[in-house]
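dumping the sequnces here before i forget
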Amino acid sequence: MGAHKPKRIGFKLDMTPLVDVAFLLLTFFMFTAKFKSEAESEQKFQIKRPVASPDTAKLPERGIALVKIGIDEKGDTLTYFAVISEKDRRSIYTAQGVDPAEANNAQVTVRDTVTLANLVLQTRRTNPKIKFMIDADKRVRYGRIEQVMNTFRSQGATLFNFVTVNRSQQG
Amino acid sequence: MAGADLGESSSKKKKGGGVKKPKRIGFKLDMTPLVDVAFLLLTFFMFATTMAQPQIMEMQVPPDITTPVEVAQSDLFTLYVSNKEHLFYNTGIDPIMRKIDIKDLQALAVQKNAERENDLITSLKVDPAASYATVVDILDELNLAEGELVDSYKEKNLKRERRFAITPITEEDKAELAKVDI
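..and the predicted 3d for all of it:
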């Protein structure tokens, strides 16, 4: 036993494989990491999305227009309209009813149904390929969603999507 | 490699510098700070990353045309969501509203559709006071039932045509719901 002791004193461990794996994982997580978007950092709430079966399609990264309905910490329901398409955003936010101070933001506040209707129409005029999404908090009353759906319908946007989160990944 | 090359070249330049050579051969670098930083960054990115990517559920509404479409009453299968988030259903033939659990909806929708093949028109009427989560749950159950139906139709070599709509709830519906929803 005593023969082993001196070896332990000047103990050196080859860390190379450990470092290899650590860097591999680090690069993986660095590339997959998705940070808060510009739009998300502007809003005052976080949307708790409703859960659905993992059967449906993924949310596209661009070429979409989101109607965000969320509840802030005071319990007020707020609606935002966000266009995720760099080239079309500016011209869409010139729609009537939008606060000119917000026209350069990533998303604009929707105060009434008329503004929303204008925005939807402007989006369809600017780029008819943009897909509409309703990204609402699960605690929102259905009446709000119905209003948005009716607005979509009145502007001819009859096909849209609800943003949900996978049941198994809910967290 | 680089370390070995450097050792050779330096030894050629300085012939008397043989004292430094043994050090380069058994070259060891203390990697501890490097590993520390690497792991720190690793943990940061692991916590910052969100694996749950949101997904989408497709929805279609009928275009804004005011002309009503005539449908056979026997083809109707209506689902109602009351302001207490309870789910009820009735059919054109059997107008009595029956309460059902959302988790049993998939089986019911499959059964009702199997009875009437492609003729069944499913409509969903939701009280504006109900929560959005309930609506998504119901849509999800109906989508699951739809998947099951498409599979069973494929076996029979039939084409499945979905007939589903979200329809506005009327005052009469609300009054009927209030009677059964205690």
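Chain A has one domain: 39-169.
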